[in-house]
Write a structure and sequence with these properties.
This protein is α/β, with parallel strands linked by helices. Helices cover 43% and strands 21% of the residues. Helix 8 links the parallel strand 7 and strand 8.
Amino acid sequence: MRHLKAFHVFHVAASSSSYSETASKLNITHGAVSKQIKVLESYLSQPLFYRKGRNVYLTPEGELLKNYTEQAFQALDTGVSKLAQVKNQYLEISCEPTLTMRWLMPRLSDFYLESGTDVRLSTAGGPVTLGANGLSLAIRRDDFELPDNYTKTKLVDEWVGPVVSPEYWSLVKNNLDDVKLLHSQTRRQAWENWSSNYKDSFYLDNVQQTFAHFYFCLQAAVDGLGAAIGSYPLVADDLKRGNLVAPFGFVLSGHRYVLLSQDKSSDDLEQKFTQWLQHSLSQCVPTSEEIAPSLQ
């Protein structure tokens, strides 16, 4: 492609307030920036910037080109990152924090033993930009608007229900007015949503306590501070170990856990991880005995 250097200079200048700022970012002179922009404007026969005081601004033609250079250079960055991943056998994965700590991390050694592939995790929830910093895939609960430009692979339907420590349950089971309802700021409507799906009245006027994060809320339930609404994959291990019980069972929340990827032509490492993740999470659903009685 002709004038690739000029396109790169434009790409940086398009997100800068001046040619001096662009020069500083690229470690070249102000004159070199101006020259490359003139080369590109001559090649395209279009003005890309106009001056106003000491600053430069994109023309409508420049704004249009900026959209495409952003896509082009992001795709190039992604390609370089994927080459490094293939060479070094690792994946960069983003996952919701509580799912990472309570479900994914304890199982990653199984994936490594199966594939020999290292998984490097970053924790975040909600919207994500794949390709940034080599990020290949993102595991999310579909409680926000999923972008149309990503491939969405269903992992498992989400089941939710109240969980408490066995010791706490023995103290309150004969008087549910005493149950303290534990909330998290990241899932404020969890109790209301569960109660409506449970198809039975519940004690929503009970004493309540709110934690900053879902992870803390679930840990408080394990520690016997009250009852929390647990998402099944996040409490499955504690249920199995006897650290938690689910006296009312689980109901479908209407949400799913999904895997976001950039395109359908994923590489071999991504396909292996996707298959392993689907298989592992498909087994993480309530047994018939754990489903809420009102649903059976």
